[in-house]
Records
---
Amino acid sequence: MNLEYIKENYIFEKLTEEHNLEDFDCESEDLTDFLKNDALKQQKMHLNLTHLVVCDGAIIGFVSILTDAVKLKIIDDKEAKIEIIEELNISGNNLIPAIKIGRFAIDKRYSNKGLGQHIFRNILLSILDISDNIVGLRFITLEAYARTCSFYVDKNKFKYLTKNNDIIRNIETIKQINPERTIPLYIDLKNIKT
């Protein structure tokens, strides 16, 4: 399938038992295994919701989303932190509502071609729409594999949700030693451009 065609024609479908997941294979064995063995079970338990990215019946990728909360004091964005604390007259220990992208993956056949960035951008815009029209939240969180941090940090403006500067300074070394180590990241919805 042509990438431009996919970009114009893919849709999101809620994962159901009717979907055939056998052919899906992404670069991470963990993510492939999650989709095939755990996503539907967790969805039935109301722990997350998984949407497949589908084009003409082919599964291009998937995203699992769940609720989250962020302790305000660990947010690095001083401007956002001050705005929330002053506007609401709360302390830094308060939890602020968030949505967590629990898992995001693109099938190997379609990865590393810019399609993931296109799909991820639409996921961010959908979450922004949810925050404007369905439920209040301020942040999007996720736990990226070390090897994918640059996708989220450099290309999508996420920030590290850690006070451990050694992790941030040594991310390249971490990628080599343990590429699937998870690193918590976040973005303020106010920083997503429509």
---
Amino acid sequence: LLTPPEDRHAPDWAAKIHIAAAPVYYHNYLFGEMIASQLSDALGGLVGNPEAGRALATRMFAPGATMRWDHLVEHATGSALDPARFARDLANSSH
């Protein structure tokens, strides 16, 4: 939330070495946010919802490493990972 100086036109993003050297971290963060949005939608909300906790325990956590991550998401939410729910949450956020 900082305003850069008006005469600044340097590629400052390049100073963040992890963007170029290890971008997978940002991909993982985005996948996590997408999965959280999809889980929240599928379970009728996550916060203050005891049923969501039980569903997470049985549908997401109990299978452990017995499934590939994409199959686990589908098992837990009822559909393949889709960015539409995350985009909707992002559009509705106040940040």
